[in-house]
Every structure is written in C-alpha cells, then in structure tokens.
C-alpha cells in the first residue's frame, strides 16, 4: 500500500495494527508509532519502524494518521496534533465512542475522517474491521479499506452502528476467548492435558467458523448435522441452555453495549 502511516498510540490495539501491516508487507520505514514510554516499542524499533513520543512529529511525516489512544485521551491528543493536520491527511480513528463530528470539531482543517473498529486479531491478519465515514471520497475509502483488508476482513457500516460493532467485533474477541477457555477447562476435566485440550479446542473453534463462512449457513443448520437422537451432542447442548448459555452471552453483549452508551 502507498503512503506513510503514523499510529498515534502504541498500546495493544495500535501494536496489533502495526504488526498486521508489517506482516502484510508494509515497509517498516513507512510506519511510525508513538507512545509516551517508547522503550515498550523496542521490538518494532528493531524492525526499522519509526518510534517517537512526539505525536506532532509523527503527524508531519505521515500521509495517513491512525489514532489508537484511550477514549479519555482523545480530546487532548487531537488538540495536540490539530495544528499539524492538513486537508491532505487521511485521519482514521479506532477510538470507541468518539464520533467523526467530534473529531472534526477539534481540527482546524477538515481532512477526510474515518472511524474504524478492528480487533486485536489484526496482529495475525484475522481482524474483523467495521469502518464508517462522513463525506469521504471514493479514493479515500479505497485507501482505508486497503489498510484494514491487510489486517483481515473489512465491512462498511453506518456510523450509528459503530458502538454495536465495537461490542460484537472488538469486545467479541474476549467473549470468544472466554468460551475457548471454558472448552479447555472442560477438556482437562474429562482427561486431556492442558496442551492437548488447547489444541483441540482452538482448532475446533476455527473449524466451526470456517463452516459458517464457507457454507454461508445459519449456525443451527451446522448444529443439526452433529446432533443425533438421544446423542451426547444434544444432551450437552441442552444442559448448556438449561444453565443459560445463550442467554448469558446475549446479556453480556447487551451489557457491554449499554456500558458504551452510558
């Protein structure tokens, strides 16, 4: 992909995006990451990535700016870099609960602004990234999609759904990992060592996802293929539902969403 990219905020998500870009072939010399404690980015520096604590410096040397800071830091970061952002920049925010209108209100110039919500699977090029924009050109949109397609899959949504995308796609990573942890613990309880249980559980989850992606089926259609009358699968599924498995998951998703909305 063309253009120099500055990632403002080298925390977990910022690093995941950087790792994904590098593994997809983005030149390290065209990438800069900022963080107050730059020593925490030494692994990127050793690869040739530009590392600095100076956000303004990073912005002036970049064509595309990806802001990946904590929500409570967003306003102060925007005020700090606003004077350096020109109409020629492409600004992408991966900060939750901070609207495009609010970003533009902090800037002197009015560049193309996007919101994107990837997840930490970006580091292994398997993110699900939702993007939204306001009055962006087709060229700008193509550039943003190209960046996040390098990190996995991309889907365009209305900005009003960005909070929902944050919960389902970004928080969803934690939900799925907790499910996998439960599978591993159950596997250990029925006789496997932790390493073997982990291998079986993770590949099973990967396989289940691929079934839905490739077959484009509803989950229940695939479930029906492995449930037989009086079988062990349906017995286990019914016990999970009796204990509130689906209900707990749905309630967790809604609670996370309501926490953003609060």
UniProtKB/TrEMBL annotation:
Q: Where does NADPH bind?
A: 55
Localization terms from the record = Cytoplasm
Could you confirm whether the keyword Transcription appears in this record?
no
Q: Where is each Pyrroline-5-carboxylate reductase catalytic N-terminal domain found?
A: 4-95
Q: Which GO terms describe its biological process?
A: L-proline biosynthetic process
Short name of one Pfam family: P5CR_dimer
Q: Outline what the protein does.
A: Catalyzes the reduction of 1-pyrroline-5-carboxylate (PCA) to L-proline.
Q: Which HAMAP family match?
A: P5C_reductase
Q: What is this protein called?
A: Pyrroline-5-carboxylate reductase
Species this chain originates from: Winogradskyella aurantia
Q: Species lineage, top-down?
A: Bacteria, Pseudomonadati, Bacteroidota, Flavobacteriia, Flavobacteriales
